[in-house]
Amino acid sequence: MSTSGGDGREATTDFGEAVEALAKQVKGPVLTPGDEGYDTERAGNQTGRSHRPAVLVGASGPADVQQAVLFAARHGLPVAVQGTGHALAAVAAEGGVLINTSRMTGVRVDAQAATAWVAAGVSWDQVIHEAAPAGLAPLAGSAPGVGVVSYTLGGGLGLLSRRYGYAADHVRSIDVVTADGRLRQVTAASDPDLFWALRGGRDNFGVVTGIEIGLMPVPALYGGGLFFDFASAREVLDTYVRWSAGMPEEMTSSLAVISFPDAPVLPPPLRGRHVVHVRIAYSADDLSPGKDLIAPLRALGPFNDTVRELPYTEVGTIHNDPPVPGAFESVTALLGELDTDAAGAVLDLVGPHAPVPHVVELRHLGGRLARPADVPNAVGHRDAHYLINIVSRLERADLADIQPAHDRLVQALAPWSTGGRALTFLNGRRDAEHVRSAYHPEDYRRLTEIKAAHDPHNLFRLNHNIPPAAPAGTGG
To answer: Mean pLDDT over residues 63-88, rounded?
Structure first.
């Protein structure tokens, strides 16, 4: 068996022997198609699509990652990285080398410094658990089962974001294996360009094996959900848009129009029902104002109200995202200021009359998100007021029907769109136009130049890819 490099480098003649040699150099499993355990190792939270690599390395630590990257470079094979596999809808690919980091699960909390060092395979629930005894909280997302590293380095929009900003804004250092196989600890002082690029550009610049992040003094929240019947969706959505625009930075919220399946796993009040779910996360030193702040929403008469003071360890109950793997497709857009016409544009295309069942979520941005990070990074479009995310499960509709339905929703919201997108929500698309839209044009140009400096052959391209800038004078 043989292979050839896509960048002109000489390939090893006996690829099988090279894989066997790699297996002797790493502690974790090294698998190829047909091997026992191959399908289990490549599986992730997204079941609709999965990687089918030529070589799969289950890394046990940074040394295994280094060997896998060096192997890929020698053979001209592109590299993909997978932790929890939540983004597989976008980045699943055939061939190449897949590095599975899910075995790398160390967490170290420094309560005095209010920081945590987190290995590449850790999900947020583990960090939440380790930080809680010190009264500290990470800037986790709505689903605690999501991987820390990919979420954070893609930006990281969570339930404390309007108060504290993006998760990427609070990264202190990054351990990363670059395309030359070196393991580096990158900080703002040691390598400002690479540190800037990794925080927003994610796995385009190497395989991150661990990060140090800041933790926040948030032992509890005033949070939960308000559920409304779809019959009152227009009133609720109109009220939410006006209400959210006047909220203090301590209030992070979102609204979702959800078509629940008629499934026994769901509680009877939600089973087979179309609802509007307003998600509340009020974080302040004094939580008592939270009740008065959400009074205008409670006045609309929710049929279920779970909003209360809760420990941060229960933050996952606010959105209550399903923890089990599933097959889904999504699309996203960033929006400016909204008016009542925007609510109508959404509701014309969702609900009981829609041919494709959706979850359409509107997240309120602004607050600390709108201001630059203390240490600049590549996360873009901080001027957006809202993010809309549209998700459909492939178990309930065909992909051929889902994508046009998503596009119709995005087009209907075009009058309010900023033209930007959020990288961590690009779970259904990874084409060049969508990736570029996650960044300001000048930042994207800078990212391509940093990519050319650290990965000129685009080894790390099985992702939301940022290609290296063409060499000066080539006209590319």
So the answer is: 90
